[in-house]
Amino acid sequence: MIPAWISQIGADCVVPLDHARTGQTASILIDRDKIENACRVLWDQGYHIESLAACDVLEGFVVRYHFAHWTEPGRLTLRVSVPRDDARIPTVSTIFPGADWHERECHDFHGVVFTGHPNLHALLLPDDGTPPPLVKSDKVRKSRTDVLPLEYLVDCGQPAETQASDKPASGDAGAQAKG
């Protein structure tokens, strides 16, 4: 069940998930300009950040933030898409200090810039201008519709017929494994 306070996040789309199957209550798609507000709402509700990571797709980068609650079930995933030519997103390390190293690692490996980060320099890789190693070439990049589970996209208003035609049907084992 999606808590009523989720509406305060300003989501573009909230996809309810089966907690027993996925370990998550919802996947929430938001605009990058709303990430700070969303994190303040989650902080006020008693959530903590577990992790964040980026995924390099044809449309740019999808940055995923995983949150959990200390006292009750209700893991949430926030997803923010940023274009490759403007891969910037406001830092959330000022709200969730635990995001500090996650953002630095994401910057190291994908080149995503977390604006306002107090210490955004190399964490694991040399700070010598080497291109981020997890940025894919156009030849191997896949579309967001191939990476995100189909139900996330359909529930968020993209008609099923716009999905990749070679994607397994939602009942296929391959589709279930993408969650």
UniProtKB/TrEMBL annotation:
Residues 158-179 are annotated as: Disordered. InterPro entries: NADH_quin_OxRdtase_su_C/D-like, NADH_UbQ_OxRdtase_30kDa_su. Gene3D superfamilies: NADH:ubiquinone oxidoreductase, 30kDa subunit. Residues 29-142 form the NADH:ubiquinone oxidoreductase 30kDa subunit domain. Keywords: Oxidoreductase, Ubiquinone. Its EC number is 1.6.5.3. One of its GO terms (molecular function) is oxidoreductase activity. Pfam families: Complex1_30kDa. Belongs to the complex I 30 kDa subunit family. This is Nadh-ubiquinone oxidoreductase chain c.
